[in-house]
Prior knowledge:
This protein is mainly α. Helices cover 81% and strands 0% of the residues. The protein contains 4 helices and no strands. It has helices at 4-30, 42-71, 74-97, 103-131. The longest helix has 30 residues, at 42-71.
Amino acid sequence: MISPWPSLVTVAALIVYFVVTINVGRARAKYKIMPPAMSGNPDFERAVRVHENTLEQLIAFLPALWIFSVFVSPVWAAAIGGVWVLGRIIYAWGYYQAAEKRGIGFAISSLSYMILLIGSLVGIILNVTQSGILS
């Protein structure tokens, strides 16, 4: 049976992505930036950067979350993944205010991702070596 915890974190991450997507549309309307324009107001441009960066990070985060869940621990994957989600929220909140305020959230989510990625690799290697596949 698949653990519900990484699934819950996946849904939370997708909700965060959905919210930052909506925020781009709201900023587009507020600052009257009509498609296909992607610039014109710094507040709008920061909203776009939050959205784009969150998408870029999400693409790497989700596989790392699930591989860690399978080869290490679904509970630990969810806990670390929850920190990643929190980091993305802090990142977005800071970046919406000023580009200089995005660093802490970026650091939190990046560190969480790296733990998931390295943990996944270690888990896979241990699984391969302990299962005797190489023998």
